[in-house]
Amino acid sequence: xxxxxxxxxxxxxxxxxxxDYLPPQNGPLPAPGSRxxxxxxxxxxxxxxxxxxxxxxVAAGRLLPVIEALDAGQPILDAGLxxxxxxxxxxxxxxxxxxxxxxxxxxxxxxxxxxxIPPQRYxxxxxxxxxxxxxxGRAPVQHQxxxxxxxxxxxxxxxxxxxxxWRKTLAILAENGWVISEPxxxxxxxxxxxxxxxxxxxxxxxxxxxxxxxxxxxLLDGITGSGKTEVYLCLLESVLQRGGKALxxxxxxxxxxxxxxxxxxxxxxxxxVIHSGLAAGERLEAWSAAGSGRAALVVGxxxxxxxxxxxxxxxxxxxxxxxxxxxxxxxxxxxxxxxVKRAAELQIPxxxxxxxxxLESINNASEGRYAWHRLRERATQAxxxxxxxxxxxxxxxxxxxxxxxxxxxxxxxERGEQAMVFLNRRGYAPVLMCQSCGWHGSCExxxxxxxxxxxxxxxxxxxxxxxxRAPRLCPDCQADALVGAGExxxxxxxxxxxxxxxxxxxxxxxxxxxxxxxxxxxxEEVRRGHPCLLVGTQMLAKGHHFPGMTLVVIVNIDQAxxxxxxxxxxxxxxxxxxxxxxxxxxxxxGTVILxxxxxxxxxxxLLLSKGYEDYARWLLEERRLAGLPPAGYQxxxxxxxxxxGSVERFLEEAAALFxxxxxxxxxxxPAIMERLGGRSRMYLVLxxxxxxxLHGQIDPWLPCLRELKxxxxxxxxxxxxxxxx
Length: 725
Ligand code: ADP
Ligand code: ZN
Ligand code: ZN
Description:
By secondary structure, this protein is α/β, with parallel strands linked by helices. The longest helix has 17 residues, at 691-707.
């Protein structure tokens, strides 16, 4: 049986293996990277062929044939992507099938779905030209179509006006050999020139251009408004001019119509857009436009990283520090790290941009692994905002806002400018409590208080989503003494409405912008520039360019100063810097007011007096002393179950099986929020000085964990380079 061929398939099941099949009984042999329909138990599943092999660990007699090669056995994932996906499942130690099938647009996980036919164009043949010259005869419609085609190749749009039967007419012309069709060539970009680059921008562009055709990671570390996006646009223009393709990844909230408009305007064509909010058909369309080489530019969020793109020459990742680049469930990968890996495999440059780079990237840049480009001035010559720290213990406070801050807002509005208030807590109040007996609303399924959403009259858990009607009287003592403690964005909105009744107030948070399009409407309204007030959460921190905004008030970032999560200070610094960066982006200077209980905290002091880079270096030094990432390497073995006992038992047994070596193991310990959605969550922390040491011990350990009986009573997963504790 020397010429027997086995088909190795990745299937969307949570098992750490590929599955072997015999070739289909009829039809083509499916190529690696193509979809197949195969039997598994009593189910039929769509999988992706990873390789063809002449041997199998399973006896041939026990193997079943592939039911059907889909897409005519043609690959939809190229060899480069297959190898990247293989690296992913090995590095992140996740089930291969979930990684590979998860990389496909959801529509293609279905056997009946097919790749859309690329747009065609139609050309007149010599015979067709002759027929045209002989006049319409008894076929005036055919003649009309030939006349249209005589002006040059056309696409569907040019032929539809001929009438609803145009496709039939076209088919007749084709049958007679008068017309042929071919895939339409991609749109030609018509870039318009941007501003003259500053010297720093120019140097960054030149450095990346010099690395075209080879791998190098570049960090574009530029303060907000320093012209990072202009650098991207210049580079994209160069790539497109050479006939290459580029991939731009942005954070979930960063993919706004404003950004796309800027790309479209400067580059002169419509980029393909890929994100998880698209309808399945739209996503498939964009994905196959990229895969067939029709789309020269893909702009997307995390999952767009796995888009096939022939002749990909540049990857750009904007706001590289953003947490949304790490997937937090299932296949827990870092799109930033995998993007760097993809660039390395393709031997192309990758550009990571941020005003507040992650400590990982700063570390890589300062050790010379990344080229480091700093843009330290605003491109428009706007001055950087000035800071005012308000010690809330010494201030009169109204509904969470210092009177000094309210006065500053009033002055800003009087000058005809805009102001924003940032508070990273939506809802009306973080907790509803009884002033008589101390009862407070807490989630039955999580270690968390329920947030009071006053206008909706509900108590909502922001962690598991469970909610109930807000009681009017205390459920414990029946007193009419329930009050909200602390503030959320809805309360700030109310306070501001009372104080500034004539000014439009726009709330930017998940509740206020839940309906599609609202966020973009809000952004448009602010950009129009008339005086208005914004109040919102993290959503305000992301990349918006509001020229009329001159005052930013930051309310309560204090919990980060004493958090149990070692990344909390890094995130706090990034948030403060990003929010502050919304102020004074054009000709008028900006001011940032920070309200805190801890004005003397050394971290805060350092950030405000020395800036983000010095702050980041100080945090890095602290991490180095503790051996924490990026000075060390971490993995978590996460487990959860309804009862804590099961979780603990599994993790204890797992810890006992950990092979000896240099990796240190801590735990089991509870997650920072132990109960979430009715489940107890705990983990083991694995920490090593080198990546190879860490992986070298985890790899032989995982098969042992799968054998553990206690592992069946708990849900568990490994998380490499974890971002959340
Ligand atoms: P970032 O992406 O770093 O926040 P942008 O690229 O959005 O910065 O630039 C901020 C503003 O400065 C934009 O209005 C942009 O058009 C303008 N800008 C960028 N580069 C230049 C330049 N070289 N000359 C003049 N204006 C510029
Ligand atoms: Zn009470
Ligand atoms: Zn909850």
